[in-house]
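Can't paste images in this forum, so I'm doing it all in text. The chain is below; anyone willing to post the predicted structure tokens underneath?
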Amino acid sequence: MIEIIEQAGRIFTKTHELMRNPQISGPVLGFLAWINSTVFKGRKTAQEKLKRLEQPEADARTVADLQANLELLLEGNEPLLKELAARLKALELMMEQAGVQTTKTNTVHVVGDSNKVYQDVSHSTITDNSVQ
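Text version of the structure:
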């Protein structure tokens, strides 16, 4: 279940950017509308946060709150979890066909002692506290 919620979180994080792509803006809107009307049905706060994703000011806290809501609502609801997984898979396939990537893979191989390794992580700040 965590994997599915993380996958939804990646979509939530990039919603504003995805909406600017005419090839996938329709499927993204459809996905969000389904979550709004099915998963978050009757949950006004979650629905408002979901709507906020379409605006440029959506932040990591909003995405985290939505993921927490998803986890709470999907726990013990296997049919809804399976439907969400299927919809995410279909959306990811459409995005892949449109050339849009929501994941990033970094590979690092380190040999030796006292090495410093940094990787690019979206929306993060890397601080090297060893530099005096």
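Helices lie at 2-19, 25-39, 44-52, 60-74, 78-97. The chain has a mean pLDDT of 84.
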